[in-house]
Amino acid sequence: MSKITIDTDTSRATPKPAPGKRMTAPKIMARKRRPDGSGEPLVMLTAYTMRMAQLLDAHCDMILVGDSLGQVIYGLDSTIPVSLDMMCAHGAAVVRGSWHAMIIVDMPFGSYEASPQKAFESASRIMKETGCAAVKLEGGEAMAETIRFLTARGIPVMGHVGLTPQAVNMLGGYRARGKDDSEEAKILADAQAVADAGAFAIVVEGVMEEIGSAVTNASPVPVIGIGASKDCDGQVLVTEDMLGLFERTARFVKVYHDLGDQITKAVETYAGEVRSGAFPTDAQTYRPKS
User: Can 205 be counted among the known catalytic residues?
Assistant: First the structure.
């Protein structure tokens, strides 16, 4: 039987591993910050491709292959049309491009809501085809039974409460949640239900700051904020948003670099050189050796 060896020094598709092991669900759970706020916050970003995973991996505790790829990669209006095939393909690419961060793959709309059995079928396929370490699903109390079912069968689950993009049609848009007492109570109850069901961590998105803090203080597992609170146990952003690849971003996004402008300028320079004949030069062409 032949053995395939990949040269990690030269391969574009496989990163050169550094000493150490991947982050795992127990390691993430152990990073729950103490009541006084001490402890190092968890870092999470999104990735949908091998190369982006390579660039993020050393700096992140977790990388999320989010269903936000529907908008970021495919130009869809929402995450609703995202398929299981999409998530598996991109999840596998991100796993191939990483060695350190825990890779978590979103379960797309329609792949888990019908029943715990349906959720297990979808989640097991994701884990088999991608090699990821966990899945993420949206919903609170309504999904508690499903989370309990999955975790009892060896599938680590990250919860997601507050603003849940897959429920955008029910929520009536992407506005911040928790502006009234009943909505605040629901978010707190949802987070508690998800934690009690066995989720190893919870994403809290788009909520009023005091709710993000309250969820974090009450939760026995790490809470990852996105538009939530600085008190959360960690933070996550869509990488393309924080790199400035889109003109329009949510209020909670901080743009750390205007990469979109840099790309535009680089392409403009390239196009000018091609049209003027300045590219390619002798340095970019092959000639017989003398």
Answer: yes
